[in-house]
Amino acid sequence: MVSLKYPPKPRPGDRVAVVSPSAGLPALFPHVYELGLRRLREEFGLEPVEYPTTRVLGADPRDRARDLTAAFADPTITAVLATVGGDDLITVTPHLDDDVLRANPKPYFGYSDNTNVLNHLYRLGIVAYHGGSVLVHLGRPGSPHPLTFASLRAALFTTDWYELTPAHEWGDRPNPWTEPETLAHEPEMLPGAGWRWQGPQREVLGRTWGGNLEILHWLLATDRVPTAAELDGSVLLVETSQEMPGAQEVFRIVRNMGERGLLAAFPAIVVGRPKAWDRAKPLSVPERQAWGDAQREAITRALAPYNPDAVVVFDVDLGHTDPQLIIPYGGEIRVDAVARRISVRY
């Protein structure tokens, strides 16, 4: 197993980096971005520090890597938050200065395409944090979601165990960023039905690895993932994006992880609630429920030949749906199938 260490945590009043290593969407949606920055200051007492490419759309990957490296190198910066995801961070991580990152470990918060950075830091031995986008979560329309903000606050400032809570209501149909007036209104929410458990009744304690399933597939293709031996005993995290890969594609990605020998390494698997609505695929509520059922069946079917005895928990709020629970990446997690509880150590 990879030797991982938690980086020091920020304190209220500290300066934190706000970077766009994936997509410079603050340039297109400054009203959402500014709301996120204001909440970072007012709700968390942190002072955001921007970098040259934070508000630049289409910045060169080398420039984005230079900004991210600079954020780690700056001794006055105590945490690094990504503004949003994207689709080309896989071209940025090769340009990072790994010696600087190793010498200056800091909590990094991001999800989706930021799986590239989370995995990169994991391989350098640095615990990071899956979640906490400045645009998506800090800039949530209406008001901050209590579960998201409680989780983010604990992840930013504490080092203790934290029990995750199933959402009583959830959503995957966000307000359009192209219409600034919608920031005043709460997004559509649906009733929550709790987590779905399957597999043996046992408790699993391990370190997390994984992230967005589509990005993991890219990382597998570029051979940038840890070995099965390095991951042995870990807990796999997976979630799918707003691109909404179909059940068959999800099956094939998970199956291919099995063929690589990875699935057998995980005694437990925590699966994010699938996002099942997008403006390109505006599914009805019944269709969204069927979409989730099909994805759960696909993952179950893919696991069967490779790790039928894994503890599996579905519909955990850790991905592209609202709210979002922050999960330490490479940090400790306890998945208790007897008590049906999940806790993480921040």
Automatic annotation (TrEMBL):
Domain LD-carboxypeptidase C-terminal: 206-335
Pfam families: Peptidase_S66, Peptidase_S66C
Molecular functions per Gene Ontology: carboxypeptidase activity
Domain LD-carboxypeptidase N-terminal: 16-131
InterPro entries the record matches: Carboxypeptidase_A_C_sf, Class_I_gatase-like, LdcA_N, Peptidase_S66_N, Peptidase_S66C, S66_fam
Keywords, comma-separated and alphabetical: Carboxypeptidase, Hydrolase, Protease
Family: Belongs to the peptidase S66 family.
Listed name of the protein: Muramoyltetrapeptide carboxypeptidase LdcA involved in peptidoglycan recycling
Source species: Micromonospora jinlongensis
